[in-house]
Amino acid sequence: MSFLVILRIVGLLLMLFSLTMVPPVVISLIFDDATWDAFVIGLGITFVTGALLYWPARNARRELRTRDGFLITVMFWSVLGLFGSLPLMLAADPSLTFTDAVFESFSGLTTTGATILTGIDLLPESIRFYRQQLQWLGGMGIVVLAVAILPTLGIGGMQLYRTEIPGPLKDSKLTPRITETAKALWYIYAALTLAYWLAGMSWFDAIGHSFSTVAIGGFSTHDASIGYFDSATIELICVFFMIVSSLSFGLHFAVWREKRLRHYLVDPEFRFFIIFLALLVTITIATLILSGTYDYDDSLGLRHGLFEVVSVATTTGFGVADFTAWPGVLPFMLFIAAFVGACSGSAGGGIKVIRILLILKQGLREIHRLIHPNAVFSVKVGKMRISGGVAEAVWGFFSAYMLLFVLMLMILLATGLDQVTAWSAVGSALNNLGPGLGGVAEHYGDMPDLAKWTLVMAMMFGRLEIFTILVLFTPAFWRR
Q: Could you tell me the residue ranges of all domains in the chain?
Protein backbone atom coordinates (compact mmCIF):
# COMPACT_ATOMS: atom_id res chain seq x y z
CA MET A 1 0.00 0.00 0.00
CA SER A 2 1.12 3.53 -0.75
CA PHE A 3 0.16 5.69 2.20
CA LEU A 4 1.09 8.87 0.31
CA VAL A 5 -1.44 8.04 -2.40
CA ILE A 6 -4.06 7.33 0.26
CA LEU A 7 -3.34 10.61 2.06
CA ARG A 8 -3.56 12.47 -1.26
CA ILE A 9 -6.97 11.03 -2.04
CA VAL A 10 -8.39 11.51 1.47
CA GLY A 11 -7.11 15.08 1.52
CA LEU A 12 -8.64 15.78 -1.89
CA LEU A 13 -11.99 14.30 -0.93
CA LEU A 14 -11.98 16.23 2.35
CA MET A 15 -11.43 19.48 0.44
CA LEU A 16 -14.32 18.58 -1.85
CA PHE A 17 -16.53 17.82 1.15
CA SER A 18 -15.76 21.22 2.68
CA LEU A 19 -17.55 22.83 -0.29
CA THR A 20 -20.78 21.13 0.76
CA MET A 21 -20.94 23.59 3.66
CA VAL A 22 -21.51 26.45 1.23
CA PRO A 23 -25.26 25.77 0.64
CA PRO A 24 -26.08 25.97 4.39
CA VAL A 25 -24.27 29.32 4.49
CA VAL A 26 -26.54 30.56 1.69
CA ILE A 27 -29.61 29.20 3.50
CA SER A 28 -28.50 30.94 6.69
CA LEU A 29 -28.13 34.27 4.88
CA ILE A 30 -31.51 33.89 3.16
CA PHE A 31 -33.33 33.18 6.43
CA ASP A 32 -31.04 35.39 8.52
CA ASP A 33 -30.73 32.72 11.22
CA ALA A 34 -27.27 33.89 12.40
CA THR A 35 -25.53 30.50 12.06
CA TRP A 36 -23.57 31.16 8.86
CA ASP A 37 -20.36 31.65 10.83
CA ALA A 38 -20.48 28.08 12.19
CA PHE A 39 -20.50 26.73 8.64
CA VAL A 40 -17.81 29.12 7.44
CA ILE A 41 -15.51 28.08 10.29
CA GLY A 42 -16.34 24.41 9.68
CA LEU A 43 -15.61 24.86 5.96
CA GLY A 44 -12.29 26.51 6.71
CA ILE A 45 -11.13 23.85 9.17
CA THR A 46 -12.18 21.03 6.85
CA PHE A 47 -10.57 22.56 3.76
CA VAL A 48 -7.30 23.42 5.49
CA THR A 49 -7.03 19.93 7.00
CA GLY A 50 -7.67 18.40 3.59
CA ALA A 51 -5.05 20.67 2.03
CA LEU A 52 -2.49 19.72 4.69
CA LEU A 53 -3.07 16.04 3.88
CA TYR A 54 -3.06 16.57 0.13
CA TRP A 55 -0.14 18.95 -0.43
CA PRO A 56 2.80 16.79 0.82
CA ALA A 57 1.49 13.86 -1.25
CA ARG A 58 0.29 15.83 -4.29
CA ASN A 59 2.75 14.10 -6.66
CA ALA A 60 2.02 10.58 -5.42
CA ARG A 61 0.16 8.85 -8.24
CA ARG A 62 -0.54 5.17 -8.64
CA GLU A 63 -3.46 2.97 -9.64
CA LEU A 64 -5.40 1.93 -6.55
CA ARG A 65 -5.38 -1.66 -5.41
CA THR A 66 -8.19 -3.42 -3.62
CA ARG A 67 -6.57 -2.99 -0.20
CA ASP A 68 -6.15 0.73 -0.85
CA GLY A 69 -9.86 0.98 -1.61
CA PHE A 70 -10.82 -0.60 1.69
CA LEU A 71 -8.57 1.69 3.72
CA ILE A 72 -9.59 4.86 1.86
CA THR A 73 -13.28 4.07 2.19
CA VAL A 74 -13.12 3.49 5.95
CA MET A 75 -10.78 6.44 6.53
CA PHE A 76 -12.90 8.80 4.49
CA TRP A 77 -16.21 7.87 6.09
CA SER A 78 -14.63 8.18 9.53
CA VAL A 79 -13.01 11.54 8.77
CA LEU A 80 -16.12 12.78 6.99
CA GLY A 81 -18.33 11.99 9.97
CA LEU A 82 -15.98 13.78 12.33
CA PHE A 83 -15.60 16.93 10.22
CA GLY A 84 -19.28 16.90 9.35
CA SER A 85 -20.00 17.39 13.04
CA LEU A 86 -18.16 20.73 13.20
CA PRO A 87 -21.10 23.03 12.28
CA LEU A 88 -23.35 21.19 14.74
CA MET A 89 -20.84 21.83 17.54
CA LEU A 90 -20.00 25.39 16.57
CA ALA A 91 -23.57 26.64 16.07
CA ALA A 92 -25.11 28.33 19.10
CA ASP A 93 -28.31 26.43 18.38
CA PRO A 94 -28.46 23.44 18.90
CA SER A 95 -25.03 23.76 20.63
CA LEU A 96 -24.28 20.04 20.76
CA THR A 97 -21.53 18.31 22.69
CA PHE A 98 -18.78 16.58 20.72
CA THR A 99 -20.37 13.16 21.21
CA ASP A 100 -23.86 14.32 20.24
CA ALA A 101 -22.59 16.23 17.19
CA VAL A 102 -20.61 13.22 15.95
CA PHE A 103 -23.62 10.95 16.53
CA GLU A 104 -25.89 13.26 14.52
CA SER A 105 -23.33 13.65 11.74
CA PHE A 106 -22.67 9.92 11.36
CA SER A 107 -26.39 9.21 11.55
CA GLY A 108 -26.96 11.56 8.64
CA LEU A 109 -24.08 10.41 6.45
CA THR A 110 -24.82 6.72 6.99
CA THR A 111 -28.51 7.47 6.25
CA THR A 112 -29.49 5.94 9.58
CA GLY A 113 -31.79 8.77 10.64
CA ALA A 114 -31.41 8.26 14.40
CA THR A 115 -31.38 11.66 16.08
CA ILE A 116 -30.49 13.07 19.47
CA LEU A 117 -32.34 16.31 18.72
CA THR A 118 -35.72 17.50 19.93
CA GLY A 119 -37.47 20.70 18.94
CA ILE A 120 -36.35 20.36 15.33
CA ASP A 121 -39.05 22.76 14.14
CA LEU A 122 -37.41 25.51 16.21
CA LEU A 123 -33.85 24.97 14.95
CA PRO A 124 -32.24 27.44 12.52
CA GLU A 125 -33.15 26.71 8.90
CA SER A 126 -29.49 26.23 7.96
CA ILE A 127 -29.07 23.48 10.56
CA ARG A 128 -32.28 21.79 9.44
CA PHE A 129 -31.12 21.95 5.82
CA TYR A 130 -27.62 20.70 6.69
CA ARG A 131 -28.99 17.56 8.35
CA GLN A 132 -30.99 16.75 5.23
CA GLN A 133 -28.01 17.47 3.00
CA LEU A 134 -25.83 15.07 4.99
CA GLN A 135 -28.26 12.28 4.16
CA TRP A 136 -28.44 13.28 0.51
CA LEU A 137 -24.64 13.09 0.26
CA GLY A 138 -24.43 9.85 2.20
CA GLY A 139 -27.30 8.17 0.39
CA MET A 140 -25.50 7.38 -2.81
CA GLY A 141 -22.13 7.50 -1.08
CA ILE A 142 -19.60 10.29 -1.25
CA VAL A 143 -17.13 7.78 -2.65
CA VAL A 144 -19.38 6.89 -5.57
CA LEU A 145 -19.78 10.58 -6.34
CA ALA A 146 -16.05 11.09 -6.11
CA VAL A 147 -15.13 8.38 -8.59
CA ALA A 148 -16.80 10.43 -11.30
CA ILE A 149 -14.20 13.13 -10.59
CA LEU A 150 -11.13 11.15 -9.55
CA PRO A 151 -10.46 9.58 -12.99
CA THR A 152 -9.88 13.07 -14.38
CA LEU A 153 -7.17 13.48 -11.72
CA GLY A 154 -5.39 10.27 -12.66
CA ILE A 155 -6.84 8.16 -9.86
CA GLY A 156 -8.65 4.87 -10.52
CA GLY A 157 -12.00 4.49 -8.83
CA MET A 158 -13.22 0.91 -9.25
CA GLN A 159 -11.69 -0.27 -5.97
CA LEU A 160 -13.58 2.42 -4.07
CA TYR A 161 -16.79 1.54 -5.89
CA ARG A 162 -16.55 -2.12 -4.92
CA THR A 163 -16.03 -1.35 -1.24
CA GLU A 164 -18.80 1.26 -1.11
CA ILE A 165 -21.74 -0.25 -3.03
CA PRO A 166 -23.81 -2.39 -0.62
CA GLY A 167 -24.72 -5.98 -1.40
CA PRO A 168 -23.08 -9.32 -2.23
CA LEU A 169 -22.99 -8.85 -6.03
CA LYS A 170 -20.64 -5.86 -6.11
CA ASP A 171 -18.96 -6.61 -9.44
CA SER A 172 -22.22 -5.98 -11.32
CA LYS A 173 -21.86 -2.47 -12.74
CA LEU A 174 -24.61 -0.36 -14.27
CA THR A 175 -22.49 0.59 -17.26
CA PRO A 176 -19.14 -0.68 -18.52
CA ARG A 177 -17.16 2.26 -17.14
CA ILE A 178 -17.09 3.37 -13.53
CA THR A 179 -17.37 7.08 -14.44
CA GLU A 180 -20.52 6.43 -16.46
CA THR A 181 -21.85 4.34 -13.59
CA ALA A 182 -21.44 7.16 -11.08
CA LYS A 183 -23.01 9.66 -13.48
CA ALA A 184 -25.95 7.32 -14.10
CA LEU A 185 -26.56 6.96 -10.36
CA TRP A 186 -26.63 10.69 -9.88
CA TYR A 187 -28.90 11.30 -12.90
CA ILE A 188 -31.40 8.92 -11.30
CA TYR A 189 -30.94 10.67 -7.96
CA ALA A 190 -31.50 14.13 -9.48
CA ALA A 191 -34.61 13.01 -11.37
CA LEU A 192 -36.23 11.59 -8.23
CA THR A 193 -35.30 14.69 -6.23
CA LEU A 194 -36.91 16.98 -8.81
CA ALA A 195 -40.07 14.87 -8.96
CA TYR A 196 -40.46 14.97 -5.17
CA TRP A 197 -40.00 18.75 -5.18
CA LEU A 198 -43.04 18.99 -7.46
CA ALA A 199 -45.23 17.26 -4.83
CA GLY A 200 -46.59 20.48 -3.37
CA MET A 201 -44.73 21.14 -0.12
CA SER A 202 -42.98 24.44 0.55
CA TRP A 203 -39.71 24.59 -1.38
CA PHE A 204 -37.68 24.22 1.83
CA ASP A 205 -39.56 21.14 3.05
CA ALA A 206 -39.78 19.62 -0.42
CA ILE A 207 -36.05 19.80 -1.06
CA GLY A 208 -35.20 18.66 2.46
CA HIS A 209 -37.50 15.65 2.36
CA SER A 210 -36.48 14.71 -1.16
CA PHE A 211 -32.89 14.52 0.09
CA SER A 212 -33.74 12.08 2.86
CA THR A 213 -36.40 10.13 0.97
CA VAL A 214 -34.24 9.19 -1.98
CA ALA A 215 -31.37 8.48 0.40
CA ILE A 216 -33.56 6.13 2.49
CA GLY A 217 -32.47 8.31 5.40
CA GLY A 218 -35.43 9.43 7.48
CA PHE A 219 -34.27 12.80 8.75
CA SER A 220 -37.02 15.41 8.61
CA THR A 221 -37.27 19.17 8.94
CA HIS A 222 -40.03 18.64 11.53
CA ASP A 223 -40.33 16.72 14.79
CA ALA A 224 -43.50 15.05 13.51
CA SER A 225 -41.73 13.92 10.32
CA ILE A 226 -44.09 13.33 7.38
CA GLY A 227 -46.98 13.31 9.85
CA TYR A 228 -46.50 17.08 10.15
CA PHE A 229 -48.22 17.57 6.78
CA ASP A 230 -51.21 15.29 7.52
CA SER A 231 -51.69 14.72 3.80
CA ALA A 232 -52.63 11.40 2.22
CA THR A 233 -51.26 12.62 -1.12
CA ILE A 234 -47.85 13.45 0.30
CA GLU A 235 -47.78 10.14 2.14
CA LEU A 236 -48.52 8.18 -1.04
CA ILE A 237 -45.85 10.07 -2.97
CA CYS A 238 -43.40 9.40 -0.16
CA VAL A 239 -44.33 5.69 -0.12
CA PHE A 240 -43.71 5.50 -3.87
CA PHE A 241 -40.27 7.11 -3.60
CA MET A 242 -39.28 4.99 -0.62
CA ILE A 243 -40.04 1.83 -2.59
CA VAL A 244 -38.34 3.11 -5.75
CA SER A 245 -35.25 4.20 -3.81
CA SER A 246 -34.97 0.90 -1.96
CA LEU A 247 -34.73 -1.03 -5.24
CA SER A 248 -31.43 -1.67 -6.98
CA PHE A 249 -30.27 1.36 -8.92
CA GLY A 250 -28.71 -1.08 -11.36
CA LEU A 251 -32.17 -2.48 -12.03
CA HIS A 252 -33.57 1.04 -12.54
CA PHE A 253 -30.80 1.83 -14.98
CA ALA A 254 -31.36 -1.39 -16.94
CA VAL A 255 -35.07 -0.55 -17.29
CA TRP A 256 -34.31 3.03 -18.32
CA ARG A 257 -31.61 2.05 -20.81
CA GLU A 258 -33.63 -0.66 -22.56
CA LYS A 259 -37.08 0.90 -21.98
CA ARG A 260 -38.43 -2.45 -20.72
CA LEU A 261 -40.43 -2.64 -17.48
CA ARG A 262 -40.22 -6.42 -17.75
CA HIS A 263 -36.81 -6.25 -16.07
CA TYR A 264 -38.59 -5.52 -12.80
CA LEU A 265 -40.94 -8.47 -13.10
CA VAL A 266 -38.23 -11.03 -13.91
CA ASP A 267 -35.86 -9.87 -11.18
CA PRO A 268 -36.08 -12.38 -8.26
CA GLU A 269 -35.00 -9.85 -5.63
CA PHE A 270 -37.64 -7.36 -6.77
CA ARG A 271 -40.40 -10.00 -6.70
CA PHE A 272 -39.41 -11.23 -3.23
CA PHE A 273 -39.23 -7.66 -1.91
CA ILE A 274 -42.64 -6.62 -3.26
CA ILE A 275 -44.33 -9.80 -2.02
CA PHE A 276 -42.70 -9.34 1.39
CA LEU A 277 -43.93 -5.74 1.62
CA ALA A 278 -47.43 -6.68 0.44
CA LEU A 279 -47.69 -9.39 3.11
CA LEU A 280 -46.54 -7.03 5.86
CA VAL A 281 -48.94 -4.30 4.71
CA THR A 282 -51.87 -6.72 4.63
CA ILE A 283 -51.20 -8.06 8.14
CA THR A 284 -50.65 -4.58 9.58
CA ILE A 285 -53.71 -2.91 8.06
CA ALA A 286 -55.95 -5.85 8.95
CA THR A 287 -54.73 -5.79 12.57
CA LEU A 288 -55.18 -2.01 12.90
CA ILE A 289 -58.71 -2.11 11.48
CA LEU A 290 -59.89 -5.18 13.39
CA SER A 291 -58.44 -3.91 16.69
CA GLY A 292 -60.04 -0.49 16.28
CA THR A 293 -56.70 1.23 16.88
CA TYR A 294 -57.93 4.37 15.13
CA ASP A 295 -61.46 4.29 16.57
CA TYR A 296 -62.56 2.23 13.62
CA ASP A 297 -61.50 4.93 11.15
CA ASP A 298 -60.49 2.56 8.36
CA SER A 299 -58.95 5.30 6.26
CA LEU A 300 -56.42 6.17 8.98
CA GLY A 301 -55.62 2.52 9.56
CA LEU A 302 -55.06 2.12 5.82
CA ARG A 303 -52.90 5.24 5.48
CA HIS A 304 -50.77 4.78 8.56
CA GLY A 305 -50.43 1.03 8.15
CA LEU A 306 -49.19 1.34 4.56
CA PHE A 307 -46.82 4.21 5.30
CA GLU A 308 -45.22 2.81 8.46
CA VAL A 309 -44.69 -0.65 6.96
CA VAL A 310 -42.92 0.75 3.91
CA SER A 311 -40.96 3.28 5.96
CA VAL A 312 -39.64 0.76 8.50
CA ALA A 313 -39.20 -2.20 6.15
CA THR A 314 -37.16 -0.12 3.69
CA THR A 315 -35.10 1.25 6.63
CA THR A 316 -36.12 4.82 5.79
CA GLY A 317 -37.47 5.73 9.22
CA PHE A 318 -40.03 8.43 8.39
CA GLY A 319 -43.12 8.51 10.60
CA VAL A 320 -46.77 9.49 10.43
CA ALA A 321 -47.76 7.56 13.56
CA ASP A 322 -46.14 5.96 16.61
CA PHE A 323 -45.96 2.35 15.44
CA THR A 324 -44.36 1.35 18.76
CA ALA A 325 -47.77 1.90 20.42
CA TRP A 326 -49.63 -0.35 17.98
CA PRO A 327 -51.29 -3.49 19.38
CA GLY A 328 -49.99 -7.03 19.58
CA VAL A 329 -46.99 -8.16 17.60
CA LEU A 330 -47.03 -5.26 15.11
CA PRO A 331 -44.16 -3.16 16.61
CA PHE A 332 -41.87 -6.19 16.88
CA MET A 333 -42.88 -7.49 13.43
CA LEU A 334 -42.14 -4.18 11.71
CA PHE A 335 -38.83 -3.79 13.49
CA ILE A 336 -37.76 -7.30 12.48
CA ALA A 337 -38.71 -6.44 8.88
CA ALA A 338 -35.96 -3.80 8.94
CA PHE A 339 -33.42 -6.60 9.39
CA VAL A 340 -34.36 -7.79 5.89
CA GLY A 341 -33.95 -4.24 4.64
CA ALA A 342 -33.74 -2.90 1.12
CA CYS A 343 -32.44 -4.41 -2.09
CA SER A 344 -28.78 -4.83 -2.90
CA GLY A 345 -27.34 -1.88 -4.82
CA SER A 346 -29.71 0.64 -3.24
CA ALA A 347 -29.11 3.30 -0.61
CA GLY A 348 -31.07 1.30 1.97
CA GLY A 349 -29.83 -0.66 4.94
CA GLY A 350 -30.49 -4.02 6.55
CA ILE A 351 -29.02 -7.41 5.72
CA LYS A 352 -30.36 -6.93 2.15
CA VAL A 353 -33.18 -8.77 0.42
CA ILE A 354 -30.92 -10.82 -1.85
CA ARG A 355 -29.02 -12.26 1.12
CA ILE A 356 -32.23 -13.23 2.90
CA LEU A 357 -33.45 -14.85 -0.32
CA LEU A 358 -30.21 -16.81 -0.66
CA ILE A 359 -30.32 -17.92 2.97
CA LEU A 360 -33.88 -19.20 2.53
CA LYS A 361 -32.99 -21.03 -0.66
CA GLN A 362 -29.95 -22.63 0.96
CA GLY A 363 -32.13 -23.69 3.89
CA LEU A 364 -34.58 -25.35 1.52
CA ARG A 365 -31.70 -27.10 -0.23
CA GLU A 366 -30.56 -28.62 3.06
CA ILE A 367 -34.10 -29.89 3.70
CA HIS A 368 -34.16 -31.50 0.25
CA ARG A 369 -30.79 -33.10 0.95
CA LEU A 370 -32.21 -34.75 4.07
CA ILE A 371 -34.98 -36.24 1.96
CA HIS A 372 -32.69 -37.21 -0.95
CA PRO A 373 -29.17 -37.68 0.49
CA ASN A 374 -27.57 -38.73 -2.80
CA ALA A 375 -29.09 -36.01 -4.98
CA VAL A 376 -27.23 -32.89 -6.08
CA PHE A 377 -29.11 -29.64 -5.59
CA SER A 378 -27.96 -26.21 -6.72
CA VAL A 379 -29.07 -22.82 -5.46
CA LYS A 380 -30.50 -20.57 -8.17
CA VAL A 381 -31.69 -16.98 -8.13
CA GLY A 382 -33.87 -16.69 -11.20
CA LYS A 383 -31.93 -18.46 -13.95
CA MET A 384 -28.55 -17.76 -12.38
CA ARG A 385 -26.83 -20.52 -10.46
CA ILE A 386 -25.18 -19.25 -7.30
CA SER A 387 -21.60 -20.35 -6.84
CA GLY A 388 -20.31 -21.85 -3.63
CA GLY A 389 -18.18 -18.77 -3.04
CA VAL A 390 -21.19 -16.44 -3.02
CA ALA A 391 -23.12 -18.78 -0.73
CA GLU A 392 -20.19 -18.93 1.70
CA ALA A 393 -19.87 -15.13 1.61
CA VAL A 394 -23.56 -14.74 2.48
CA TRP A 395 -23.29 -17.06 5.46
CA GLY A 396 -20.04 -15.40 6.50
CA PHE A 397 -21.71 -12.00 6.41
CA PHE A 398 -24.67 -13.27 8.43
CA SER A 399 -22.38 -14.82 11.05
CA ALA A 400 -20.31 -11.65 11.39
CA TYR A 401 -23.50 -9.59 11.55
CA MET A 402 -24.91 -11.64 14.43
CA LEU A 403 -21.62 -11.66 16.36
CA LEU A 404 -21.34 -7.88 16.10
CA PHE A 405 -24.97 -7.48 17.07
CA VAL A 406 -24.50 -9.55 20.23
CA LEU A 407 -21.23 -7.81 21.15
CA MET A 408 -22.72 -4.31 20.79
CA LEU A 409 -25.88 -5.37 22.59
CA MET A 410 -23.83 -6.46 25.60
CA ILE A 411 -21.98 -3.12 25.61
CA LEU A 412 -25.26 -1.19 25.63
CA LEU A 413 -26.69 -3.41 28.36
CA ALA A 414 -23.54 -2.74 30.40
CA THR A 415 -24.31 1.00 30.28
CA GLY A 416 -27.54 0.36 32.19
CA LEU A 417 -30.08 0.40 29.34
CA ASP A 418 -33.03 -1.97 29.47
CA GLN A 419 -33.15 -4.92 27.09
CA VAL A 420 -35.78 -3.58 24.69
CA THR A 421 -34.05 -0.22 24.34
CA ALA A 422 -30.59 -1.80 23.97
CA TRP A 423 -31.39 -4.42 21.35
CA SER A 424 -33.61 -2.14 19.29
CA ALA A 425 -30.99 0.65 19.36
CA VAL A 426 -28.29 -1.74 18.10
CA GLY A 427 -30.64 -3.21 15.49
CA SER A 428 -31.69 0.24 14.33
CA ALA A 429 -28.10 1.48 14.02
CA LEU A 430 -26.72 -1.68 12.41
CA ASN A 431 -29.60 -1.72 9.90
CA ASN A 432 -29.35 2.05 9.31
CA LEU A 433 -33.02 2.37 10.25
CA GLY A 434 -33.29 5.23 12.78
CA PRO A 435 -36.32 4.78 15.06
CA GLY A 436 -36.23 2.11 17.72
CA LEU A 437 -38.36 0.73 20.53
CA GLY A 438 -38.50 1.51 24.23
CA GLY A 439 -36.30 4.42 25.29
CA VAL A 440 -35.21 5.25 21.72
CA ALA A 441 -38.65 5.32 20.14
CA GLU A 442 -38.53 9.12 19.89
CA HIS A 443 -34.86 10.13 20.14
CA TYR A 444 -31.42 8.99 21.33
CA GLY A 445 -30.51 12.06 23.34
CA ASP A 446 -30.83 10.42 26.77
CA MET A 447 -28.40 7.56 26.08
CA PRO A 448 -24.99 7.39 27.82
CA ASP A 449 -22.00 8.57 25.77
CA LEU A 450 -20.51 5.06 25.60
CA ALA A 451 -23.76 3.79 24.10
CA LYS A 452 -23.76 6.61 21.52
CA TRP A 453 -20.20 5.86 20.41
CA THR A 454 -21.04 2.16 20.17
CA LEU A 455 -24.01 3.03 17.95
CA VAL A 456 -21.81 5.27 15.79
CA MET A 457 -19.65 2.22 15.13
CA ALA A 458 -22.77 0.17 14.42
CA MET A 459 -23.90 2.76 11.85
CA MET A 460 -20.52 2.56 10.14
CA PHE A 461 -20.55 -1.24 10.12
CA GLY A 462 -24.06 -1.23 8.70
CA ARG A 463 -23.32 1.33 6.01
CA LEU A 464 -20.09 -0.32 4.85
CA GLU A 465 -21.48 -3.83 5.29
CA ILE A 466 -19.21 -5.07 8.09
CA PHE A 467 -16.38 -6.74 6.16
CA THR A 468 -15.13 -3.46 4.67
CA ILE A 469 -14.21 -2.46 8.23
CA LEU A 470 -13.40 -5.88 9.72
CA VAL A 471 -10.81 -6.58 7.03
CA LEU A 472 -8.68 -3.76 8.46
CA PHE A 473 -8.34 -5.66 11.74
CA THR A 474 -6.75 -8.74 10.14
CA PRO A 475 -2.93 -9.12 10.13
CA ALA A 476 -3.05 -10.36 6.53
CA PHE A 477 -4.37 -6.99 5.36
CA TRP A 478 -1.24 -5.18 6.54
CA ARG A 479 1.30 -7.70 5.26
CA ARG A 480 3.24 -6.71 2.15
A: 3-174
